[in-house]
Design brief:
The chain is an alpha/beta fold. It is built from eleven helices and 21 strands. The structure holds S-adenosyl-L-homocysteine (SAH). The site of S-adenosyl-L-homocysteine has 19 residues, from helix 7 and strand 14. One of its GO terms (biological process) is methylation.
Protein backbone atom coordinates (compact mmCIF):
# COMPACT_ATOMS: atom_id res chain seq x y z
CA UNK A 1 0.00 0.00 0.00
CA UNK A 2 1.31 3.47 -0.87
CA UNK A 3 1.91 6.02 1.83
CA UNK A 4 0.81 9.63 1.34
CA UNK A 5 1.94 12.49 3.52
CA UNK A 6 -0.70 15.12 4.20
CA UNK A 7 -0.43 18.75 5.28
CA UNK A 8 -1.05 19.96 8.85
CA UNK A 9 -4.44 21.31 7.76
CA UNK A 10 -5.46 17.93 6.37
CA UNK A 11 -4.21 16.23 9.52
CA UNK A 12 -6.36 18.55 11.62
CA UNK A 13 -9.43 17.85 9.48
CA UNK A 14 -8.84 14.11 9.71
CA UNK A 15 -8.56 14.34 13.49
CA UNK A 16 -11.82 16.32 13.54
CA UNK A 17 -13.52 13.44 11.76
CA UNK A 18 -13.88 14.99 8.31
CA UNK A 19 -13.62 12.19 5.73
CA UNK A 20 -13.68 13.92 2.36
CA UNK A 21 -10.14 14.65 1.14
CA UNK A 22 -9.49 17.98 -0.52
CA UNK A 23 -6.90 18.32 -3.30
CA UNK A 24 -5.36 21.46 -1.82
CA UNK A 25 -4.44 19.58 1.37
CA UNK A 26 -2.08 17.20 -0.44
CA UNK A 27 1.47 17.60 -1.51
CA UNK A 28 1.90 17.01 -5.21
CA UNK A 29 1.64 13.31 -5.93
CA UNK A 30 0.38 11.31 -8.85
CA UNK A 31 -1.47 8.51 -7.14
CA UNK A 32 -5.12 8.03 -7.97
CA UNK A 33 -7.75 5.28 -7.84
CA UNK A 34 -5.93 3.40 -5.13
CA UNK A 35 -6.01 2.72 -1.41
CA UNK A 36 -3.36 4.61 0.56
CA UNK A 37 -1.99 4.96 4.05
CA UNK A 38 -2.15 8.58 5.21
CA UNK A 39 0.61 9.91 7.43
CA UNK A 40 1.27 13.32 8.97
CA UNK A 41 4.18 15.59 8.00
CA UNK A 42 6.13 13.91 10.82
CA UNK A 43 5.27 10.49 9.40
CA UNK A 44 2.69 9.54 12.05
CA UNK A 45 -0.03 7.12 10.85
CA UNK A 46 -3.39 8.90 10.42
CA UNK A 47 -5.62 6.37 8.70
CA UNK A 48 -6.64 4.35 5.65
CA UNK A 49 -7.99 6.27 2.68
CA UNK A 50 -8.52 5.95 -1.02
CA UNK A 51 -7.74 8.50 -3.68
CA UNK A 52 -10.07 9.07 -6.62
CA UNK A 53 -11.25 12.20 -8.37
CA UNK A 54 -14.91 13.06 -7.88
CA UNK A 55 -17.21 16.04 -8.22
CA UNK A 56 -16.12 17.38 -4.83
CA UNK A 57 -12.84 16.15 -3.37
CA UNK A 58 -10.03 13.83 -4.41
CA UNK A 59 -10.79 10.86 -2.18
CA UNK A 60 -12.05 9.67 1.18
CA UNK A 61 -10.61 8.77 4.53
CA UNK A 62 -12.22 5.43 5.33
CA UNK A 63 -10.88 4.60 8.77
CA UNK A 64 -8.49 5.91 11.42
CA UNK A 65 -7.28 2.30 11.70
CA UNK A 66 -5.19 0.24 9.28
CA UNK A 67 -7.86 -1.71 7.42
CA UNK A 68 -8.42 -3.58 4.18
CA UNK A 69 -11.32 -2.75 1.90
CA UNK A 70 -12.29 -6.39 1.43
CA UNK A 71 -15.75 -7.93 1.20
CA UNK A 72 -15.90 -8.40 4.99
CA UNK A 73 -15.35 -4.66 5.50
CA UNK A 74 -18.31 -3.90 3.23
CA UNK A 75 -20.50 -6.53 4.86
CA UNK A 76 -19.77 -4.93 8.23
CA UNK A 77 -20.55 -1.34 7.23
CA UNK A 78 -23.66 -2.42 5.28
CA UNK A 79 -24.90 -4.48 8.20
CA UNK A 80 -24.44 -1.63 10.67
CA UNK A 81 -26.18 0.71 8.26
CA UNK A 82 -29.09 -1.74 7.92
CA UNK A 83 -29.59 -1.85 11.70
CA UNK A 84 -29.93 1.95 11.74
CA UNK A 85 -32.85 1.77 9.26
CA UNK A 86 -34.93 -0.75 11.17
CA UNK A 87 -37.93 1.58 11.45
CA UNK A 88 -37.92 2.18 7.69
CA UNK A 89 -37.48 -1.54 7.07
CA UNK A 90 -40.52 -2.31 9.25
CA UNK A 91 -42.74 0.43 7.84
CA UNK A 92 -45.56 -0.42 5.43
CA UNK A 93 -46.15 3.27 4.71
CA UNK A 94 -42.69 4.10 3.40
CA UNK A 95 -41.11 1.65 0.95
CA UNK A 96 -38.35 3.77 -0.58
CA UNK A 97 -35.44 5.06 1.49
CA UNK A 98 -31.66 5.25 1.69
CA UNK A 99 -29.85 2.30 3.25
CA UNK A 100 -26.27 3.50 2.83
CA UNK A 101 -25.14 7.12 2.83
CA UNK A 102 -21.46 7.72 2.14
CA UNK A 103 -19.23 8.82 5.05
CA UNK A 104 -22.26 8.91 7.37
CA UNK A 105 -22.25 5.12 7.10
CA UNK A 106 -18.48 4.71 7.10
CA UNK A 107 -17.55 4.71 3.44
CA UNK A 108 -17.63 7.86 1.30
CA UNK A 109 -18.26 7.71 -2.44
CA UNK A 110 -21.14 5.25 -2.27
CA UNK A 111 -24.84 5.53 -1.61
CA UNK A 112 -27.55 2.87 -1.89
CA UNK A 113 -31.31 3.44 -1.98
CA UNK A 114 -34.12 0.89 -1.84
CA UNK A 115 -37.29 1.21 -3.90
CA UNK A 116 -39.53 -1.66 -2.72
CA UNK A 117 -37.56 -4.83 -3.58
CA UNK A 118 -34.96 -3.10 -5.76
CA UNK A 119 -31.74 -1.31 -4.92
CA UNK A 120 -30.07 1.63 -6.64
CA UNK A 121 -26.31 1.99 -6.19
CA UNK A 122 -24.64 5.35 -6.85
CA UNK A 123 -20.90 5.34 -7.55
CA UNK A 124 -19.38 8.78 -7.02
CA UNK A 125 -15.85 8.14 -8.31
CA UNK A 126 -13.83 5.71 -10.48
CA UNK A 127 -12.28 3.88 -7.52
CA UNK A 128 -15.61 2.84 -6.00
CA UNK A 129 -16.74 1.86 -9.48
CA UNK A 130 -13.63 -0.31 -9.91
CA UNK A 131 -14.42 -2.32 -6.77
CA UNK A 132 -18.16 -2.50 -7.36
CA UNK A 133 -18.25 -6.32 -7.58
CA UNK A 134 -16.91 -6.60 -4.04
CA UNK A 135 -19.46 -4.06 -2.79
CA UNK A 136 -22.34 -5.78 -4.62
CA UNK A 137 -21.29 -9.22 -3.30
CA UNK A 138 -21.30 -7.83 0.25
CA UNK A 139 -24.67 -6.18 -0.33
CA UNK A 140 -26.21 -9.43 -1.55
CA UNK A 141 -25.08 -11.16 1.66
CA UNK A 142 -26.62 -8.43 3.86
CA UNK A 143 -29.76 -7.95 1.71
CA UNK A 144 -30.70 -11.41 0.35
CA UNK A 145 -34.33 -10.18 0.16
CA UNK A 146 -33.57 -7.60 -2.55
CA UNK A 147 -34.63 -8.90 -5.99
CA UNK A 148 -32.50 -6.80 -8.28
CA UNK A 149 -30.40 -3.67 -8.56
CA UNK A 150 -29.45 -0.74 -10.78
CA UNK A 151 -26.42 1.53 -10.80
CA UNK A 152 -25.94 5.26 -11.35
CA UNK A 153 -22.60 6.68 -12.44
CA UNK A 154 -22.05 10.01 -10.71
CA UNK A 155 -18.61 10.86 -12.07
CA UNK A 156 -17.13 11.64 -15.47
CA UNK A 157 -15.40 9.08 -17.66
CA UNK A 158 -17.87 6.22 -18.15
CA UNK A 159 -20.03 6.29 -21.29
CA UNK A 160 -23.34 5.51 -19.55
CA UNK A 161 -25.03 6.96 -16.48
CA UNK A 162 -27.54 4.25 -15.58
CA UNK A 163 -27.66 0.46 -15.98
CA UNK A 164 -29.08 -2.77 -14.64
CA UNK A 165 -26.60 -4.22 -12.11
CA UNK A 166 -27.85 -7.64 -11.00
CA UNK A 167 -30.86 -9.86 -10.44
CA UNK A 168 -34.41 -9.39 -11.56
CA UNK A 169 -35.20 -6.37 -13.75
CA UNK A 170 -37.68 -3.91 -12.31
CA UNK A 171 -40.70 -2.79 -14.36
CA UNK A 172 -39.84 0.38 -16.31
CA UNK A 173 -42.06 2.33 -13.89
CA UNK A 174 -43.63 1.15 -10.64
CA UNK A 175 -45.21 2.49 -7.47
CA UNK A 176 -43.45 3.08 -4.17
CA UNK A 177 -45.00 4.52 -1.01
CA UNK A 178 -43.88 7.28 1.30
CA UNK A 179 -45.99 8.20 4.32
CA UNK A 180 -48.79 6.28 2.64
CA UNK A 181 -48.67 8.38 -0.55
CA UNK A 182 -47.96 6.63 -3.86
CA UNK A 183 -45.23 7.83 -6.23
CA UNK A 184 -44.27 6.41 -9.61
CA UNK A 185 -40.57 5.73 -9.95
CA UNK A 186 -38.23 4.51 -12.69
CA UNK A 187 -34.84 3.05 -11.92
CA UNK A 188 -33.13 2.94 -15.27
CA UNK A 189 -33.72 6.24 -17.05
CA UNK A 190 -30.82 8.63 -16.44
CA UNK A 191 -29.63 9.62 -12.99
CA UNK A 192 -33.00 10.59 -11.55
CA UNK A 193 -35.72 8.20 -10.37
CA UNK A 194 -38.86 10.37 -10.16
CA UNK A 195 -38.48 11.25 -6.49
CA UNK A 196 -35.83 12.86 -4.28
CA UNK A 197 -35.85 10.67 -1.20
CA UNK A 198 -34.07 13.22 0.99
CA UNK A 199 -37.28 15.30 1.15
CA UNK A 200 -39.26 12.60 3.07
CA UNK A 201 -39.91 14.86 6.05
CA UNK A 202 -40.89 17.97 4.11
CA UNK A 203 -43.41 15.96 2.08
CA UNK A 204 -44.59 14.42 5.36
CA UNK A 205 -45.34 17.91 6.72
CA UNK A 206 -47.53 18.53 3.65
CA UNK A 207 -49.29 15.18 3.96
CA UNK A 208 -49.82 15.91 7.65
CA UNK A 209 -51.79 19.06 7.06
CA UNK A 210 -49.52 22.06 6.45
CA UNK A 211 -51.47 22.78 3.26
CA UNK A 212 -54.94 21.51 4.20
CA UNK A 213 -57.58 23.68 2.52
CA UNK A 214 -54.86 25.85 0.99
CA UNK A 215 -53.56 26.64 -2.48
CA UNK A 216 -49.94 25.68 -3.13
CA UNK A 217 -47.45 26.84 -5.74
CA UNK A 218 -44.59 24.38 -6.30
CA UNK A 219 -41.65 26.05 -8.08
CA UNK A 220 -38.98 23.85 -9.75
CA UNK A 221 -41.48 21.05 -9.30
CA UNK A 222 -39.70 18.23 -11.27
CA UNK A 223 -42.29 15.41 -10.83
CA UNK A 224 -44.52 17.56 -8.56
CA UNK A 225 -43.92 15.34 -5.54
CA UNK A 226 -44.52 18.25 -3.11
CA UNK A 227 -47.81 19.03 -4.89
CA UNK A 228 -48.97 15.43 -4.67
CA UNK A 229 -48.06 15.29 -0.96
CA UNK A 230 -50.02 18.53 -0.42
CA UNK A 231 -52.99 17.25 -2.44
CA UNK A 232 -53.06 14.08 -0.35
CA UNK A 233 -52.91 16.29 2.73
CA UNK A 234 -56.05 18.10 1.60
CA UNK A 235 -54.70 21.09 -0.33
CA UNK A 236 -57.51 22.88 -2.17
CA UNK A 237 -55.45 23.58 -5.27
CA UNK A 238 -51.87 23.06 -6.50
CA UNK A 239 -49.83 24.58 -9.33
CA UNK A 240 -46.53 22.95 -10.29
CA UNK A 241 -44.03 24.85 -12.41
CA UNK A 242 -41.03 23.34 -14.16
CA UNK A 243 -39.10 24.23 -17.27
CA UNK A 244 -38.68 20.63 -18.42
CA UNK A 245 -41.44 19.39 -20.76
CA UNK A 246 -41.06 15.87 -19.44
CA UNK A 247 -41.98 17.00 -15.93
CA UNK A 248 -45.61 17.16 -17.02
CA UNK A 249 -46.12 13.44 -17.74
CA UNK A 250 -44.00 12.40 -14.75
CA UNK A 251 -46.07 14.63 -12.48
CA UNK A 252 -49.30 13.33 -13.97
CA UNK A 253 -48.13 9.78 -13.14
CA UNK A 254 -47.76 10.64 -9.42
CA UNK A 255 -51.25 12.19 -9.33
CA UNK A 256 -52.74 9.18 -11.17
CA UNK A 257 -51.02 6.75 -8.79
CA UNK A 258 -53.08 8.29 -5.97
CA UNK A 259 -56.34 8.47 -7.91
CA UNK A 260 -56.26 12.29 -7.78
CA UNK A 261 -58.33 14.10 -10.42
CA UNK A 262 -56.54 17.02 -12.09
CA UNK A 263 -59.44 19.51 -11.87
CA UNK A 264 -57.69 21.50 -9.16
CA UNK A 265 -54.13 20.62 -10.01
CA UNK A 266 -52.26 22.47 -12.69
CA UNK A 267 -48.97 21.46 -14.34
CA UNK A 268 -47.17 24.35 -16.01
CA UNK A 269 -44.12 24.01 -18.24
CA UNK A 270 -42.46 27.41 -17.82
CA UNK A 271 -39.42 29.20 -16.43
CA UNK A 272 -40.20 30.07 -12.81
CA UNK A 273 -39.20 33.69 -13.31
CA UNK A 274 -41.65 33.97 -16.19
CA UNK A 275 -44.30 32.34 -14.02
CA UNK A 276 -43.74 34.87 -11.22
CA UNK A 277 -44.42 37.65 -13.77
CA UNK A 278 -47.43 35.80 -15.19
CA UNK A 279 -48.97 35.24 -11.75
CA UNK A 280 -48.43 38.86 -10.75
CA UNK A 281 -49.96 40.14 -13.98
CA UNK A 282 -53.00 37.91 -13.50
CA UNK A 283 -53.44 38.73 -9.82
CA UNK A 284 -52.88 35.13 -8.70
CA UNK A 285 -52.21 34.45 -5.02
CA UNK A 286 -51.05 31.30 -3.24
CA UNK A 287 -51.25 30.29 0.42
CA UNK A 288 -48.10 28.14 0.31
CA UNK A 289 -45.14 28.54 -2.06
CA UNK A 290 -42.42 25.87 -2.29
CA UNK A 291 -39.03 27.02 -3.59
CA UNK A 292 -36.67 24.09 -4.23
CA UNK A 293 -34.32 25.04 -7.08
CA UNK A 294 -31.27 23.19 -8.36
CA UNK A 295 -28.06 24.51 -6.73
CA UNK A 296 -27.00 25.91 -10.05
CA UNK A 297 -28.80 26.28 -13.37
CA UNK A 298 -28.03 27.95 -16.64
CA UNK A 299 -30.47 28.69 -19.43
CA UNK A 300 -30.25 30.81 -22.57
CA UNK A 301 -31.11 33.99 -20.73
CA UNK A 302 -29.40 33.74 -17.36
CA UNK A 303 -27.64 31.68 -14.73
CA UNK A 304 -29.10 30.97 -11.32
CA UNK A 305 -27.19 29.97 -8.21
CA UNK A 306 -28.62 29.37 -4.75
CA UNK A 307 -25.64 31.12 -3.16
CA UNK A 308 -26.24 34.40 -5.02
CA UNK A 309 -29.80 34.44 -6.32
CA UNK A 310 -32.05 32.67 -3.82
CA UNK A 311 -33.21 36.00 -2.37
CA UNK A 312 -34.87 36.80 -5.72
CA UNK A 313 -37.10 33.75 -5.36
CA UNK A 314 -38.20 34.94 -1.91
CA UNK A 315 -38.76 38.53 -3.02
CA UNK A 316 -40.82 37.51 -6.05
CA UNK A 317 -42.82 35.01 -4.01
CA UNK A 318 -43.85 37.78 -1.61
CA UNK A 319 -45.67 39.52 -4.51
CA UNK A 320 -47.96 36.54 -5.02
CA UNK A 321 -48.27 35.16 -1.49
CA UNK A 322 -51.60 35.40 0.37
CA UNK A 323 -51.70 37.29 3.69
CA UNK A 324 -50.14 35.08 6.38
CA UNK A 325 -48.95 32.77 3.60
CA UNK A 326 -46.17 30.22 4.01
CA UNK A 327 -42.93 29.85 2.07
CA UNK A 328 -41.09 26.54 2.11
CA UNK A 329 -37.51 27.53 1.30
CA UNK A 330 -35.30 24.58 0.38
CA UNK A 331 -31.82 23.95 -0.94
CA UNK A 332 -29.57 20.93 -1.30
CA UNK A 333 -26.48 23.02 -2.07
CA UNK A 334 -23.69 21.57 0.10
CA UNK A 335 -21.49 24.62 -0.54
CA UNK A 336 -24.09 26.91 1.08
CA UNK A 337 -24.09 26.70 4.89
CA UNK A 338 -27.27 27.00 6.94
CA UNK A 339 -26.21 30.49 8.04
CA UNK A 340 -25.50 31.61 4.49
CA UNK A 341 -28.78 30.20 3.24
CA UNK A 342 -30.65 32.01 6.00
CA UNK A 343 -28.86 35.25 5.07
CA UNK A 344 -29.96 34.83 1.44
CA UNK A 345 -33.53 34.24 2.60
CA UNK A 346 -33.43 37.29 4.87
CA UNK A 347 -32.15 39.40 1.98
CA UNK A 348 -35.33 38.50 0.09
CA UNK A 349 -37.61 39.34 3.01
CA UNK A 350 -36.34 42.92 3.56
CA UNK A 351 -38.92 44.80 5.60
CA UNK A 352 -41.51 42.02 5.49
CA UNK A 353 -42.25 40.52 8.90
CA UNK A 354 -42.02 36.78 9.06
CA UNK A 355 -41.65 33.88 11.45
CA UNK A 356 -39.71 30.63 11.12
CA UNK A 357 -42.09 27.74 11.83
CA UNK A 358 -39.89 24.71 11.15
CA UNK A 359 -36.45 23.70 9.95
CA UNK A 360 -35.69 20.39 8.23
CA UNK A 361 -32.31 18.80 7.58
CA UNK A 362 -31.53 15.37 6.13
CA UNK A 363 -33.98 12.70 7.30
CA UNK A 364 -32.75 9.86 9.53
CA UNK A 365 -32.14 7.38 6.68
CA UNK A 366 -29.68 9.88 5.14
CA UNK A 367 -27.17 9.31 7.94
CA UNK A 368 -24.57 12.05 7.62
CA UNK A 369 -21.11 12.50 9.10
CA UNK A 370 -21.76 14.28 12.40
CA UNK A 371 -18.22 15.72 12.29
CA UNK A 372 -18.72 17.33 8.88
CA UNK A 373 -21.60 19.79 8.85
CA UNK A 374 -21.42 20.11 5.04
CA UNK A 375 -22.45 16.45 4.67
CA UNK A 376 -25.86 17.41 6.13
CA UNK A 377 -26.48 19.26 2.89
CA UNK A 378 -30.27 19.63 2.93
CA UNK A 379 -31.65 22.84 4.42
CA UNK A 380 -35.35 23.61 4.48
CA UNK A 381 -37.20 26.36 6.32
CA UNK A 382 -40.95 26.72 6.65
CA UNK A 383 -41.57 30.44 7.05
CA UNK A 384 -44.82 32.27 7.68
CA UNK A 385 -45.22 35.82 6.49
CA UNK A 386 -46.98 38.29 8.77
CA UNK A 387 -48.70 40.97 6.74
N1 LIG B 1 -38.45 20.23 -6.13
C1 LIG B 1 -38.27 19.01 -6.87
C2 LIG B 1 -36.86 18.82 -7.35
C3 LIG B 1 -36.34 19.93 -8.20
S1 LIG B 1 -35.07 19.40 -9.26
C4 LIG B 1 -38.72 17.80 -6.07
O1 LIG B 1 -38.97 17.94 -4.87
O2 LIG B 1 -38.83 16.73 -6.63
C5 LIG B 1 -34.82 20.87 -10.16
C6 LIG B 1 -35.86 21.11 -11.23
O3 LIG B 1 -35.76 22.46 -11.57
C7 LIG B 1 -35.65 20.32 -12.52
O4 LIG B 1 -36.81 19.55 -12.76
C8 LIG B 1 -35.45 21.41 -13.59
O5 LIG B 1 -36.10 21.10 -14.80
C9 LIG B 1 -36.08 22.60 -12.93
N2 LIG B 1 -35.62 23.93 -13.35
C10 LIG B 1 -34.34 24.36 -13.44
N3 LIG B 1 -34.33 25.69 -13.77
C11 LIG B 1 -35.61 26.08 -13.88
C12 LIG B 1 -36.25 27.32 -14.17
N4 LIG B 1 -35.54 28.42 -14.43
N5 LIG B 1 -37.60 27.34 -14.19
C13 LIG B 1 -38.33 26.23 -13.94
N6 LIG B 1 -37.78 25.04 -13.65
C14 LIG B 1 -36.44 24.96 -13.61
Amino acid sequence: MNTVRVSRIAEKKIKQGICILDGVDFQKQNLTNTVVKLVSEQGKFLGTAYLSQQNKGVGWLVSRAAIELNQTFFEDVLHQAKLKRQTFHDSEWTTAYRVFNQDGDGFGGLSIDLYNDYAVFSWYNPFVYSIKERIVDAFRVVYPEIQGAYEKIRFKGVDYDSAHLYGQEAPSTFTIFENGVAYKVFLNDGLMTGIFLDQHEVRASLVDGLATGKSLLNMFSYTAAFSVAAAMGGARQTTSVDLAKRSRELSQAHFDANGLEMDHHQLVVMDVFDYFKYAKRHGLYFDVIVLDPPSFARNKKQTFSVAKDYHKLIAQSLDILSPAGIIIASTNASNVSLERFKKEIEKGFVGVKHQYLANYRLPSDFVYNKNDESSNYLKVFTIQVQK
